[in-house]
Design goal:
The chain has 479 residues and is mainly alpha-helical. Among the domains are: 1-126; 221-403, no CATH class. Helix content is 69%, strand content 0%. The protein is built from 27 helices and no strands. It has helices at 3-13, 18-24, 26-34, 48-72, 80-91, 99-122, 130-138, 144-152, 161-168, 172-182, 188-204, 209-219, 238-247, 251-263, 266-283, 290-307, 315-321, 325-331, 338-349, 355-368, 373-386, 392-402, 404-414, 420-432, 438-442, 445-453, 456-469. The radius of gyration is 26 Å and the shape is globular. The two termini are 46 Å apart.
Length: 479
Amino acid sequence: MSLVKKYNELIFDVSTKLDFIYNNEMETIKAFLKATEIDKHKAITNNEEDNKILSLYEFKDGVLDILITMIENGIKNFDLELISLVGDLVIGDVPNLSGEGSVLLDEIIKKIYKKSFYVLYHVGDINNLQRVKSFLEKQDIPDFRNVCLSILFKVDHWSAFDLECLSNLSSPAIIYDLIRMYKTDLIEEIRFKLVKGLSKFIKEGVKDLNHIYLIFNEINDFKFEDLISKPVDGEFSNEYFKFIYSLVVDSSTSLKAFNLLISCNLFDNLREGISDIITMNVVENRAVDPSDEEFVLHLIEIISRILSFKTKEMEHIRLYFTRFIDPLMRYIIGSVSLRTRGAVYSFLDQYMNDEECKICISEFFKASKIFRRENFIRDIEEEMIEGTFFFTPRALKLLSYLDLDLAVDCALYALRTEDVKTIRIAFDLFLKSEKITSKNILLSSKHIRMAMLSSISLTRFITRYQIEKDTILNDSRND
């Protein structure tokens, strides 16, 4: 029987006959992983030889899906030969293909790497994978593959100092630089293994805590409730606030973070700081000290994160923070950064379902005339130049409560940012509006497609939007 036909049979049975596959078909799965060619291939490109290679790697990517399904259902006891074959998928040479084929192969290879890392993480002891360890010892470039392998494996000798630091957790500053480069591609298991290893240093109060705090801020969304405590070194640094922000992941961590910060009088300090800044910035027209603005920014972001978990136990906290609504609105009238304004908008957004608060916020913005189209467009363009979008999506969301027509108008312009979060919020607004037409959106179809290339979830969302609206957002004239 051909490999592809046998594979299709296993895929059909994988959801109902996992035990049978484990007891009878593991040698078949090994044969799949060893395959150097398959008997059927797809017409993916115009190059026949490239299609054979692409089809082979797509086939092996699918084989990994079978193993992942087994792991997800509690079957993890694979023998050393099979685990070694998974390791070989990661360290094997990648064929050279033509232009189009090369791009497609890179995408498949990255999926294979991520799925292989998932398998290697979950199967238990992988220290016997000598081929992988020997490969890693020779690597001198900290690319995505080698960074992930260095987190998973320990080896005796290293060719790259930064990979050694990463594996041994010996230099948080170097680890931080590496993680920033690859954070969006790191699978959940790799991220957890890294932050779990670093957490012990926080408890011990080692040097360079600030870089460990920053690493958590970049990649943590796991629950480490025991880490929510006063800084070991006694310093309430900006890095510490970013760290606390990353630890707020549910209602219980929200409550603990709130109790910690209020016990340290930080919210009282925040109100005093905002009052002083308003006096300097708005009344006396003096520039705000950047460190003061950063202090306000980080605490407001933590507060918004705390408020995002809406349970009965959190209701008294929501009530407590209403005292910040008025001072924060007056605060952003002055000269503050777009990121700070965006953080304040996120905070205010938490109260837009409270009728009394919504009236207060709406009246303020109508009187202040902050939300004018020309101002909004200017701010969007500023973020487009910077290439970071902290303000735009948050401002669109808040504006939708205050003036939906203006929000939709600004959202149409914001499509050109090609920012995934901004475009998702824009389409949420389009769904609410009766005035929006596909013709308006088509003017930015090129920018929408660029964002879709970097986000599967956005692609699915916009596909559903087109089905619901019975429209096609594609216009070759804009390419």
